[in-house]
Each structure stands twice: as C-alpha cells, then as structure tokens.
Amino acid sequence: MIFVTVGAQMPFDRLVRAMDDWAASHRQRPVFAQIGPTEYRPRSLEWSSFLDPPEFRRRVAEAELLVAHAGMGSIITALELGKPILVMPRRGDLRETRNDHQVATAKRFLEQGRVSVAFDERELPERLDSMTSHDASDRIAATADPRLIGALRQFIFDSEKAISS
Amino acid sequence: MRTDRQRVKPTRILAVASGGGHWVQLLRLRPAFADAAVTYVTVNEAYRSDVATDLAERGARFAVIDDATRWDKLGLAKMAARLLWIVLRTRPHVVVSTGAAPGYFAIRFARLFGARTIWLDSVANVERLSMTGELVGRHADLWLTQWPHLAKPDGPRCEGAVL
Asked: Which of A50, A139, A140, A156 best probes binding to B when mutated, by most B CB atoms within 10 angstroms?
C-alpha cells in the first residue's frame, strides 16, 4: 500500500489529484490517501479526510512508501519508521501554504538524502515509478540529537538552585 | 498531586506546541524533560495518546486549546486568554515551545511570572526563521534554531536538531 498524506491543516488537491490519476493507471498498486479539508473526491484511490495520530502512525508503519506534502510531521514520522518518502512541496504562489518554506525544506532534505522530491505534479509519476520499498532506510532514533537534548537539560536543570519553590 | 517520597518538588515544565510538525518535534525533546513535572499543551485532543505513558507513569498533564492563525484575531485573543489561565494554574519554572502561536503566548505570559523560557524554531524553517520565532526570540532566555546557517552572534543559537 502507498500512503498519501497532506496533513490536517489545509487541502493540497494538486497532490491528491496527481495521485488519483496515477492510481487510475496503476490498478495493481493500492493507494490510500489522507486528503484533508477539501471538496475534491478521489475516484481511483481509497481516502479519508483526517486520521487520528495512532491511525496515522499505523498507516505509515504498514505502508511500503509515503507520498506527502513537505510537512515535518509527515517527514519525521516516515524517518522514525524507516519508510521511504516522496514529498511534493506546497507552493506559496498557489496559496497552498503561506509561503515557499516547503520548497526550501524539500531541497534541504533532498540534499541530505533523507527524502525523494517531486517539485511538481508533472515530476510525480516519474519519481514514483522509480521508487521502491528498497529505498527504505534505517529508522532514525525516536528522540532528538543528544547534543540538543543535553543543551536543553542543562538549561532546564542546572539553574534549579535559583528556583524558589 | 505530589507524592510524599518527593521531598524536593520537581521542576515544572510547560511544553507547548501547535499541531502537525510542531507537536512531532516537541515529542522528540522528551528526554530533556525527564524528572520534571510536565504539562503538555497542544491543539488536538487526539494527541493525548502520544504522551499516554508520560501521563500514566510520570505524572505529566495534558491540556488542549483551540488553534488559531495570525489572521484570526478573535481566535488569537481566546488562545492568549487560555494560555494565561494555564500559566497561572501551572506556574511553570520553564516553558519550552517548538511553535507556533500558542508558544508565543506561553513564553510572553510565563516570563511575566519569572519562568525561564525556551523557543526552538521548527526544523521546517530552513531559509529564515519563522515569523513567530522572530517575534518571540528576544523574549526567550534560550533562543534556538535547528540550522547552523541561521544562527547569529546575538541569537538564535544552534545546538543541534530534532533529527
């Protein structure tokens, strides 16, 4: 199963439509999509508007690969579960989000080799066809960089003496 | 609330994040909160299950507020009021937020009552800090970006990332 997700906040019909079209010509590849608050009704794939966090995580865990907007919730969950992820960034000029920060995120994570990227819907089928579940990588640790955890702990606890109560 | 064996009251942390990636990033910071009494504040009741173990075994608490964007003035006013109430009820020693708007209010209010505050700008902000981060950074005692190239001598600092 390919799991498509656009996050809970905004619709991203450009991605959902592209995946719907792809699914129509790839009947042997089942696709499930979480499509957010939208009027668009996919014809060739199973879908749901929203998923609770446990259900979302289960869908990611069971998926062979993820196709998602370039949101950190989707990217981090895929990396935590060691799933290959193809992202298509939302664009500010199309009012899919408030600016082009997802384009920058996608570029940076692509450079780091953490994600595959389709920068628009025309690139999507080609990228998708070249991805396999062998692109899966090792799961990343469930927690932040130890250096960051250490810096936070030092800030939180080293001044305890200064705390009055 | 406190058990008798805890002679020293634990540090009280208010950990605040809105939905999606903000919340997922906050969850990855949890080892930094070990031994503290944490109150999680977020925008979706369904996220409670993500911290179920902390709630059941570590005495953490969980509060839900309504989300609002910067275009929704009434929603922001309600959010501010809710966070003021939560700050007054929990009297945190430390506030930590990964964004967005709820973290802004939590940091501004808690600081009035002497809390020390941490703003960790989302890893999604690759080219520039978030607008909220720019606004609240000067009010945070520890102001962090997750990208070394966005760190500046007068803040924010970079001490690593959530991944």
From this structure: A156
CA–CA separation, B156 vs B123, rounded Å? Answer: 13
Q: What is the reported pTM?
A: 0.93
Going from the C-alpha of B128 to that of each of A3, A9, B134, B147, the distances in angstroms are: 30, 22, 9, 9
A122: three-class secondary structure by DSSP: coil
The minimum CA-CA distance between B65 and chain A, rounded to whole Å, is: 16
> Is B13 buried (19+), middle (13-18) or exposed (0-12) by CB count in 10 A?
buried
CB B90 within 8 A of CB B67: no
**Rounded-to-integer distance, Cα B14 and Cα B109, Å:** 12
Strands A116-117 and A85-87: parallel
Q: How many CB atoms lie within 10 A of CB B143?
A: 23
Residues of chain B above pLDDT 90, percent: 91
Q: Which amino acid is at B144?
A: L
What is the number of other CB atoms lying within 10 angstroms of the CB of residue B90?
21
- Most B CBs within 10 Å, among A98, A154, A155, to test the B interface: A155
SS3 at position A98:
coil
What is the tens place of the pLDDT at every residue in A70-117?
A: 999 999 999 999 999 999 999 999 999 988 999 999 999 999 999 999
A165/B50 CB distance under 8 A: no
Using the structure block, give the residue that is written with the tokens 């990855």: B28
Residue B50 φ/ψ, nearest 5 degrees: -65, -25
Does residue A94 belong to the interface with chain B, where contact is any CB pair within 8 Å? no
